[in-house]
Amino acid sequence: MGNTLLTQERNVPLALLTCKINFTPLPKDQWDDYLLEGAEIDGKVYRRVAGNPTIHIKRGDYFECVTCGTPTSRRRVQHPIKGRSDIHIEYVPYCSNCEDIPSQFGKQIN
Ligand SMILES: [Zn+2]
What we know:
Mean pLDDT: 86
Low-confidence stretches: 1-7
Order of helices and strands: HHEEEEEEE
Number of helices: 2
Bound molecules: zinc ion
């Protein structure tokens, strides 16, 4: 039964799935370059990066791409802080199969 559910979800056209899901912005830090959005429907938890068509669905303790089923990767984005030697780190989810890797260089924090 679990596999049947998986297959059905992956066969849903992405555009249709996007229309059905009402995403809301998640809290972000002021230096973040990427706004994460979340949704929960029928107990299923979804995430996406605002402006990005890729949707990630929670499977147990990890997320995977709704389109291809690849486990979601996280890109470590570094934000230099003006006048200081340390950096802030932002983690950005992406699908290594469907998307280009986000840049590791975030905007400078002033
Ligand atoms: Zn994918």
